[in-house]
Write a structure and sequence with these properties.
Layout lengths: L43 H6 L71 H24 L8 H32 L3 H31 L7 H8 L1 H13 L5 H28 L8 H28 L5 H25 L14 H18 L11
Helix pairs in contact: 2-4, 3-4, 3-5, 3-6, 3-7, 4-8, 5-6, 6-9, 7-8, 7-9, 7-10
């Protein structure tokens, strides 16, 4: 009979070094609160967005994991002239277990921003799918009921040339303003919001392109290439084209967002979509095109403008750099308002082209100026004298 001797195994001894041994407020909580929620309880939007992009000023102990050719790592704060509290602090020297090195968290005020729409990837897909579905149904219903047969002849040419031309604005701004800002923003909250704004513009550019192809099939004599001629050579569009191209060249991500959503859109975008196309279309027998323009107006007025005003409100109220930010924003207004007014005025000939015309151009321009004034006043900025041009 074989006898097996009992093996000697070292006895386990536990010390206070194990993770989780320390007691602290919320130790027994089942929720992980590593950020300050904007409301009483953290939202699902915050759970999937806040600090998803790491930051050495907060949690990334080993510093940025990559750098650019010039040695800058991650998301340099000098990619914009604006500042949020704590921006001028040195990045703390970090090592495993070093913590915040005496800095209070959050390490700088950029992390205070939350999208008031609480939009993230899933909500973006759901929202865009819903809009596309509704617009597709509207166009399909118009085809089945021969609604395009009711359009006046001059209006057919107007839609082909000028409504079609707007797709170039949407595509240019979507790809080269908001997609670029998506890479340059300082936090994941900013970048997610800019990406969604980009999707709104790109979705609308595609909708207009598909609408153009549908009308080419449905309306005899509809010129599906007229929008290219209008965009490239029509004098009425050259001011808008020049301004759109200038916006795409801005390297400062905050200036690009500010100039596009708080100057170009209120003074040019809403002027064209709301005060020309949507007002003139019904009188010329067209009840379909306003649904496309209305969808884009909703994207901007009810979603993109909300996050933009919230973003810059935080900066003009910043506890450390409010004066600096106001001065910078004021200089941007002086730069971009004259260009926007000039671009808006080059569109004036379009108001006389439909058979049934909208309100006079000067009345329309005055309305968008008033709305612009309200937006800028809400940020406690001075109305630039160039607005009177």
């Amino acid at each position: 009979m074989t006898v097996t001797s009992e093996r000697s195994v070292p006895r386990l001894e536990f010390t206070d070094a194990e993770a989780g041994s320390k007691e602290f407020p919320d130790s027994d909580s089942r929720r992980y609160n590593y950020f300050e929620p904007s409301k009483r309880k953290q939202s699902h939007y915050e759970d999937v967005t806040v600090d998803v992009q790491p930051d050495p000023r907060r949690w990334l102990a080993q510093g940025w994991l990559y750098s650019f050719a010039d040695g800058k790592g991650g998301y340099p704060l000098d990619w914009t002239a604006l500042k949020a509290w704590g921006s001028d602090r040195e990045v703390p020297v970090r090592k495993p277990g070093s913590g915040g090195q005496g800095y209070g968290w959050p390490a700088h005020g950029w992390h205070e921003f939350r999208d008031p729409n609480e939009a993230w990837e899933l909500t973006m897909f759901r929202y865009n799918a819903s809009v596309v579905r509704q617009l597709t149904q509207n166009i399909d219903a118009a085809r089945q009921t021969k609604a395009f047969d009711q359009w006046r002849t001059n209006w057919i040419d107007f839609v082909a040339r000028h409504v079609g031309a707007w797709m170039h604005v949407d595509h240019g701004l979507g790809m080269h303003v908001f997609v670029q800002a998506n890479r340059r923003g300082p936090t994941n909250m900013h970048n997610t919001t800019f990406a969604i704004n980009a999707m709104h513009r790109l979705r609308m550019a595609q909708e207009l392109a598909q609408y153009n192809m549908t009308l080419t099939d449905e309306i005899e004599g509809f010129d599906g290439t007229a929008h290219l001629t209008a965009w490239n050579t029509d004098p009425a569009w050259q001011g808008v084209r020049e301004l759109t191209e200038k916006l795409t060249t801005i390297s400062d991500w905050a200036e690009a967002i500010f100039a596009t959503n708080l100057v170009f859109e209120p003074l040019v975008g809403e002027l064209f979509r709301s005060h020309l196309v949507q007002q003139a279309a019904p009188g010329n027998g067209d009840f379909i095109t306003p649904t496309l323009m209305g969808a884009e107006e909703y994207d901007f007025a009810e979603r993109d403008l909300q996050y933009t005003t919230h973003l810059f409100q935080l900066l003009v109220d910043d506890k450390e750099f409010a004066a600096h930010n106001k001065e910078t924003l004021q200089s941007w207004l002086s730069t971009w308002v004259p260009s926007a007014i000039s671009a808006a005025r080059t569109l004036q000939p379009l108001w006389s082209q439909p058979d049934v015309k909208p309100a006079r151009f000067e009345e329309s321009l005055e309305r968008v100026k008033n709305r612009f004034t309200d937006l800028i006043s809400g940020l406690h900025l001075s109305i630039p004298k160039e607005l009177a041009q």
